[in-house]
């Protein structure tokens, strides 16, 4: 056994083969028997982050939980037991299925995330690291926001810094910073790529400081919402959700004429068949 494996914090009953993910503060093991995951700290240095995450999940649970969060099943030794999102990461799903994901599905994800983040903020939590890498999908493709190990609870310090393309120039321990990151996450969901593409962190921050954000005009109304998130005009996740709901309704209604046309064509064809059958039947009787 290598020294790296020996140094890993592997819970009893699990092995390296059970690891399905790892992050800044911990390892995630799949418990196949219960279809849940166990998240444990890498080492004693990361226990504070896992403890913050435990307190956050307990706060969410006390407030009734939310469909957009992984279900919390309690503490497991020095870690947590959480719901297993069977489709795993949204980022990998976007990359693997980018040509087949419908606009409605992408819009639904954006609204789900807005609603979830609204619940998170209402309970005294700033995520601090919102991006598609920290969002998972269940078996119905429902988004699940996760990874609260670096988050702020009741104004505690953030223990992590979000990637540059999702990073605000203002106070990172704030709802406004999470809204900025939400805008970048919308961009990522709608385009299947991160804002600023492959640009280096220093270049991204220089552009962002000057409010030179990626062009979103091709994204229509959603592009405007993204710009409002980046420019501090959107003040809450709930505000973003309401705007996206209006877009989804317009998108739905724009599809109705073609749907009605299809129904009408089918109806005319059916009536034509009935008419022809009736004429043929009558003629056969009077022969």
TrEMBL record:
Domain (Protein kinase) ranges: 14-256
Family annotation (PANTHER family): MITOGEN-ACTIVATED PROTEIN KINASE KINASE KINASE 20 (PTHR44329:SF288), SERINE/THREONINE-PROTEIN KINASE TNNI3K-RELATED (PTHR44329)
Transmembrane regions: 259-281
GO molecular function terms listed in the Swiss-Prot or TrEMBL record: ATP binding; protein serine/threonine kinase activity
Designated name of the protein: Kinase-like protein
Keyword GTP-binding included in the entry's annotation: no
Keywords associated with the record: ATP-binding, Kinase, Membrane, Nucleotide-binding, Transferase, Transmembrane, Transmembrane helix
Coiled coil: none
């Amino acid at each position: 056994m290598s020294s790296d494996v020996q140094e890993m914090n592997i819970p009893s009953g699990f092995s390296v083969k059970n690891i399905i993910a790892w992050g800044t503060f911990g390892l995630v093991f799949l418990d196949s028997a219960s279809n849940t995951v166990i998240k444990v700290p890498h080492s004693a240095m990361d226990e504070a982050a896992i403890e913050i995450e435990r307190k956050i999940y307990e706060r969410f649970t006390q407030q009734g939980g939310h469909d957009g969060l992984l279900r919390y099943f309690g503490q497991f030794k020095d870690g947590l037991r959480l719901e297993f999102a069977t489709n795993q990461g949204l980022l990998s799903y976007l990359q693997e299925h980018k040509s087949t994901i419908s606009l409605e599905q992408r819009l639904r994800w954006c609204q789900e995330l807005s609603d979830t983040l609204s619940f998170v903020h209402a309970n005294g939590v700033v995520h601090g690291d919102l991006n598609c890498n920290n969002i998972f999908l269940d078996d119905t493709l429902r988004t699940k926001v996760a990874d609260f190990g670096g988050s702020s609870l009741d104004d505690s310090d953030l223990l992590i810094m979000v990637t540059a393309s999702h990073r605000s120039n203002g106070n990172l321990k704030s709802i406004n910073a999470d809204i900025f990151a939400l805008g970048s996450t919308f961009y990522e969901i709608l385009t299947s790529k991160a804002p600023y593409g492959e640009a280096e962190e220093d270049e991204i921050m220089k552009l962002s400081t000057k409010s030179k954000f990626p062009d979103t005009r091709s994204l229509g109304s959603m592009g405007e919402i993204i710009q409002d998130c980046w420019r501090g005009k959107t003040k809450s996740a709930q505000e973003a959700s309401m705007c996206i709901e209006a877009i989804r309704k317009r998108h739905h209604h724009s599809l109705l004429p073609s749907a009605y046309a299809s129904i009408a064509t089918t109806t005319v064809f059916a009536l034509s068949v009935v008419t022809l059958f009736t004429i043929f039947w009558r003629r056969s009787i009077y022969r």
